[in-house]
Automatic annotation (TrEMBL):
<feature type="binding site">
    <location>
        <position position="183"/>
    </location>
    <ligand>
        <name>substrate</name>
    </ligand>
</feature>
<comment type="function">
    <text>Required for the formation of a threonylcarbamoyl group on adenosine at position 37 (t(6)A37) in tRNAs that read codons beginning with adenine. Is involved in the transfer of the threonylcarbamoyl moiety of threonylcarbamoyl-AMP (TC-AMP) to the N6 group of A37, together with TsaE and TsaB. TsaD likely plays a direct catalytic role in this reaction.</text>
</comment>
<feature type="binding site">
    <location>
        <position position="113"/>
    </location>
    <ligand>
        <name>Fe cation</name>
    </ligand>
</feature>
<keyword id="KW-0479">Metal-binding</keyword>
<dbReference type="InterPro" id="IPR000905">
    <property type="entry name" value="Gcp-like_dom"/>
</dbReference>
<protein>
    <recommendedName>
        <fullName>tRNA N6-adenosine threonylcarbamoyltransferase</fullName>
        <ecNumber>2.3.1.234</ecNumber>
    </recommendedName>
</protein>
<feature type="domain" description="Gcp-like">
    <location>
        <begin position="26"/>
        <end position="313"/>
    </location>
</feature>
<feature type="binding site">
    <location>
        <position position="170"/>
    </location>
    <ligand>
        <name>substrate</name>
    </ligand>
</feature>
<keyword id="KW-0808">Transferase</keyword>
<feature type="binding site">
    <location>
        <position position="187"/>
    </location>
    <ligand>
        <name>substrate</name>
    </ligand>
</feature>
<comment type="similarity">
    <text>Belongs to the KAE1 / TsaD family.</text>
</comment>
<dbReference type="GO" id="GO:0061711">
    <property type="term" value="F:tRNA N(6)-L-threonylcarbamoyladenine synthase activity"/>
</dbReference>
<feature type="binding site">
    <location>
        <position position="117"/>
    </location>
    <ligand>
        <name>Fe cation</name>
    </ligand>
</feature>
<keyword id="KW-0408">Iron</keyword>
<feature type="binding site">
    <location>
        <position position="279"/>
    </location>
    <ligand>
        <name>substrate</name>
    </ligand>
</feature>
<keyword id="KW-0012">Acyltransferase</keyword>
<dbReference type="InterPro" id="IPR017861">
    <property type="entry name" value="KAE1/TsaD"/>
</dbReference>
Amino acid sequence: ADEPLVLGIETSCDETGVGIVHGTTLLADAVASSVDTHARFGGVVPEIASRAHLEAMVPTIERALKTAGISAKDLDGIAVTAGPGLAGALLVGVSAAKAYAYALGKPLYGVNHLASHICVDQLEHGKLPEPTMALLVSGGHSSLLLSSDITSDVRPMGATIDDAAGEAFDKIARVLDLGFPGGPVIDRLAKEGDPAAIAFPRGLSGSRDPAYDFSFSGLKTAVARWIEAKRAAGEDVPVRDVAASFQEAVVDVLTRKAVRACKDEGVDHLMIGGGVAANSRLRALAQERCERAGIRLRVPRPGLCTDNGAMVAALGSEMVARNRPASDLELSADSSLPV
Ligand code: KG4
Ligand code: ZN
């Protein structure tokens, strides 16, 4: 049989994403982002995100269809992020997906946002081996997940107990007046700084701490206090060293725990996804530690790591390929949908 042709809609946060895939081939990945509007507020404002999704939804779907050069009636299914995410934002995507599915008479697939962050890697590196360990790090989540079947069996191993990794990057960038989002700027400045200049704390790294959970709020406070002390003493803040040392503390814990989870579970593939997966030091250290542990590392290109519609289409395509049941038109958004 021919490979499934699926359109995917993602509206869990501030990007209105519509992707179209054929099997594991990416045909279109249209994204409209409201990030510039949120930048003025230093973070995502849910009400603004919902309104922006509403305005961008239909044009973005049309743009994706045009780019893919297909007609909506040729689709084998429509997939949509059902959760987790911002309730109002999710609702826009779910409503649009239901309307198109109903009008076109196509099966509807409500998918999990975290699972689709993992599945997107198939568009770049081919079918994901099962099991695969996944480290998902973004502004909204920081989780270790064990995927034994991407459509039905993704087990949470651990997660952050406070801030997400990306959130920590954004908050430290704010303290340093570097703008929003902070990750890319810190990544860039850190390249010129010394990661060993300041010994910032590694959260939950003690032998009695949970092996796979993360904590970044203590680190955030430690960095903020360190900067305050410098300023109070009338000294210059060595921004590059602070950026490098902070970033090292984050990626050290992330990679160490991810590799440990792989070893403990006997899993020899690790994928890293989410916006923070764009971080150059995270990629380099993960590569180094995976190589040493005999683990194959898979990281999609940055454009596929951040929220997009292609990842939803990728998982939808997998649902069709594996004959998973479609959702009914009663599908609703669930802001805290578990994997
Ligand atoms: O996945 P994403 O686009 O949106 C969600 O949060 O779901 O991730 C955005 C997050 C932001 O916190 C941003 O600062 C962070 O990813 N980020 C980075 C880098 N690029 C983006 N963090 C560290 N290094 C980067 N190069
Ligand atoms: Zn995400």
